[in-house]
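Budget justification note: compute hours in this period were largely spent on complex prediction jobs such as the one shown. Inputs:
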Amino acid sequence: MSLVELRNITKSYEGKPALDGVSLKVRKGEIFCIMGHSGAGKTTLLRILALLERPDSGEYYFDGALVSWNRPGSLRRGITMVFQTPVMFNTTVFKNVAYGLRLRGYSRAEIEQKVKDVLRLVGLEGYENRKAKTLSGGEKQRVAIARAIVLEPKLLLMDEPTANLDPTNSGIIEDIVREIAKENGTTIVFSTHNMFQAKRLADRVAHIHLGRIIEVGKTEDIFEMPKNELTRKFINGELF
Ligand SMILES: Nc1ncnc2c1ncn2[C@@H]1O[C@H](COP(=O)(O)OP(=O)(O)OP(=O)(O)O)[C@@H](O)[C@H]1O
Ligand SMILES: [Mg+2]
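Corresponding output:
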């Protein structure tokens, strides 16, 4: 069963195509990677999946329902996105994570329990009263992930979740992503320009190049026997 289906999505900025006929299916519960170089269209694609950006043409089906771009409304509730550079509210970790729950009207006790559980999942138990702005880059990214998953989305989108982090912190984030998929069964779509991360983390990979998905498949198939010449070059580090 697909949670996400895109059909022939196009998006241009100032007459230049950023996405050029993208069709894609993401299955429920999988970790799906959008892999490609800078400028390939990864962020544009994720922003459309998050309903933050409207495509010029094409259809988006989310959990079986055709997205109506004039009224995405309740569908937004099922989708959260973690951005490449986490932006923290100038307050405590607790309030940063609780923010979305407050908007949704949860009780104080429910909020406390959910924040506690999610902070444990991202390895930040006991951080509730820390000032979010004073955390390290890796800790901030974990707060951003906590803020996104505490809302229990059907679809979690992560735009280059470790691009600004060192290998140790990247490894921590990758473990958290696996844990979220395993514990919550959340469908996760992340982007990366790092083929090693794609290989380590994804169940399936789509290679995006100049706004087109040129190959998609199971991770081991893509890396062991890529069908597309450009994908072969990408994974051999020959495509710049
Ligand atoms: N708001 C915008 N206005 C104008 N051009 C844009 C805008 N957003 C994206 N683009 C252009 O669309 C293309 C795809 O950009 P996008 O940000 O999706 O790439 P990306 O794969 O995320 O790159 P990176 O790895 O550097 O983050 C680029 O040529 C970019 O300059
Ligand atoms: Mg980007």
